[in-house]
């Protein structure tokens, strides 16, 4: 045990450094227009062509009431109907509009195909259309963001501790988020939504029906239960037969062994082991990913994460909002009543945060968690499950990683920052990921069912 202490302390300290780096960098961060999600020229031109071809004008969708259930339908059939066809007299959307049968999500490629087939597909209305026209939910007309990044405008209620600097009376904020897959989550995950804000599948479905589908008729408790059961009991909501068997009481799935040398090397990042201190310099690569992606769903911390959090914790900051490679607009938040307000020279209990999406912090009302070295609130998100990951691109809460290769590249940057003893100073990072490491990680991720 003793050998562990020094490097773990180093990691904690460097994680603290990284938080400082993130916070001070925030002060200079401005929304970089034209340098974000819409920056790729080829993508910009092809989407412009697609949009021009379709000549899509403003859309008005007339609410239609679906026929009520027939007594002969079984509960599963009725659950399926509610998930796939019921619009609740709203904007024409159903759950399946955003959670497809094949992947449980929507990728930019899916969106582009659907736009070609039908530019009035309800995916593109409301929070699936381009930026805010004042109501926090999109302009209802333009579709470039959906076609390029497949993100949704999520309007999140602010915690009582939180206000917006530029609009102090606002009680909601709009952020851009990808659609998490409905693979495995309904059956296994008690933590729902990317920030964990929904307590049950029923409240989650009620929220989706109100916010995404703009329901104009009330939803019954029975309907919410049928939707929950359908998601928990139907094969297509599992990434593999092994996961389905696990939900039915079978054994938890283990890590695939890997066949090629690359897959076997990639596996080492996911084994529940501490860093290797046998060489002259500590090697943080063994067990690096499993410190957060452990357990049957690979979505919880293990005993080797060097932070003061219980094993099985579910929220962490892996610097996706901090790096903001999407160039999403950065929002100025003020967090009040903060016990951690010890660094800005003005201990008034207020901490300002500048972030495109502070994630979990909007729910907990806590900023400055780098002071407690927990990193589970500010810019923290639910630790994603990794089963079936090869089928559910794009990745991260803002869809900033289009491919698993992009994910590996992100972690290479993350590694370089959190293991850098003097932050942006002259000393190099203790460890980096090589090109081969990144290939090995991707090879192994592709094996996960
Ligand atoms: C407009 C697209 C859209 C529609 C329609 C939609 N969802 Fe979602 N769903 C999302 C997004 C985006 C999130 C994540 C939002 C967040 O975390 O803030 C999500 C999250 C979820 C989650 C939680 C996943 C997780 O990993 O925690 C479940 C379960 C879910 N939706 C089920 C449903 C059901 C059931 C319906 C229909 C009643 C539905 N969704 C309709 C976009 C949609
Ligand atoms: C400190 C905890 C932590 C570590 C270490 C970690 N992850 Fe993650 N991982 C997360 C969190 C939290 C998210 C969600 C982040 C977000 O969306 O902002 C995530 C998301 C992901 C995703 C995206 C999943 C999706 O559906 O969008 C992949 C893939 C992934 N991690 C793989 C890895 C790999 C590979 C490693 C090791 C190189 C690793 N992670 C190390 C916490 C961690």
Describe this structure in words.
The radius of gyration is 22 Å and the shape is globular. Helices cover 33% and strands 6% of the residues. It has a 3-stranded antiparallel beta sheet with strand order 2-5-6. A two-stranded antiparallel sheet has the order 1-3. It is built from 15 helices and 7 strands. The chain starts with a helix and ends with a helix. The protein has helices spanning 2-28, 41-54, 75-84, 95-98, 108-117, 144-149, 185-188, 201-211, 221-233, 241-247, 261-268, 320-323, 361-364, 404-418, 435-445; strands at 152-157, 162-164, 172-177, 315-316, 331-335, 351-355, 381-382. With 449 residues, the protein is mainly alpha-helical. The chain has a domain at 1-30 and 252-328 and 367-449: Cytochrome Bc1 Complex, Chain D, domain 2. Bound molecules: heme C (HEC) (2 copies). Residues 269, 288-289, 291-293, 316, 318, 320, 381, 383-384, 386, 389, 392, 395-397, 407, 411, 441 line the site of one heme C.
Q: Which features does this protein show?
A:
disordered N terminus; 7 strands; 3-stranded antiparallel β-sheet; 449 residues; 6% strand; Cytochrome Bc1 Complex, Chain D, domain 2; two-stranded antiparallel sheet; mainly alpha; binds heme C
